[in-house]
Design goal:
Blueprint (H helix, E strand, L loop, with lengths): L1 E5 L8 H15 L3 E8 L5 E5 L2 E7 L2 E3 L2 E3 L4 H7 L3 E6 L2 H13 L4 E6 L8 H20 L3 E4 L2 H6 L1 H4 L4 E3 L19 E6 L8 H13 L4 E6 L5 H10 L6 E4 L7 H6 L3 E3 L11 H8 L4 E4 L6 H4 L6 E4 L4 H13 L1 H19 L1 H13 L1
Parallel strand pairs: 1-2, 1-7, 2-4, 7-8, 8-9, 9-10, 11-12, 11-14, 12-13, 14-15, 15-16
Antiparallel strand pairs: 3-4, 5-6
Helix pairs in contact: 1-14, 7-12, 10-13
Length: 368
Amino acid sequence: MRIVHITKYFSGNGGIESYTRTVAEAAKKAGHEVHVVCATEKKKYSEMKEGGIGVIKLPEIATMMNAPITGPIVPILGKLKPDVIHLHIPNPWAELNVFLYKLTHPKTRLIVTYHSDVISYNPLMRLFAILRLIYLVPAMNFLCDRVIATSENYVSGSSALRLSKNVAVIPIGVDTKKFRPGKNRNRRFTFLFVGRLIPYKGLDNLIEACSIVKGSGKNFILNIAGDGRLYSALKKSASLSGVTDRVRFFRNVSDKKLPLVYKQCDVFVLPSVYRSEAFGIAQLEAMASGKPVISTDIAGSGVPFVNKNNVTGIVVRPHDKISLANAMMYMMDNRKLLSKMSKAARCRAVKFFDCRKTSKRILDVYVR
């Protein structure tokens, strides 16, 4: 079977990139021919093989709703002649291309993973989001063979998913063999954030929380692993908050080194504030590594579904730097609870979110 993934990008450690790579690799291992079509910020079109997966990268011309606009995708699909197209959304330009292709190739099976709504941060974006829903909901109902949502929480919070008739809930998986517990050699209590440095991650609140924790006299360090457009602003914020001695930034952490980064922390923190954070793969990687998580109770998001409050970690209110700081200090003061949550986090990750189990469920959807 020839499977083609259509996604925004296929490099870096972003959530959708990680998900696409995991599912593509599982399909390749199962004996299928797998291709990925995505955008690149480079100016040249390229074709290559990555681990036996064919990767076609189209130059990004512009962006719309935080997603790339490239040259036409339909001719590439015509050349590849896929049996299954797996479309990862939100990705408006790719959606229009794939739906057009499906209209003229009805026998091609179309599977959509609905990663997130387009969250409207301003009136113009809100208008675009409404216009997109006008075509998206009918297309998901009449052109898609299956729509995959990553949690029941997100289905209940998303208008598009609630209006869709063919939704299957399959959680995102993580490689629990790659991400596993190990020795932590740090002398100071270490918090960790991994992800893109973008507004909805709530890192400004985390830095302010660090200032509160430092003011209490506690000895700790926060490692921020990731890059993004807020890198300079966050470094400046750390300086203004007086926590440059407590907050360290690591811009370029390779996928190979990521498991070690998780091992060298005591608690993972995901301070996201908007439903753009639909699931939080990084918190799942941390849990698989045996680390408790401090996350936020984002309404309609899968984040609190993954991290169970007072079981695998602590869930606090979004935008609440005081609650975030209190949770950090509570973790530092309760080592026995920390150990208990560490074991529970690893157990939950293995039981419900192992990528071998979740990928098999997705491969089953391809043929049904």
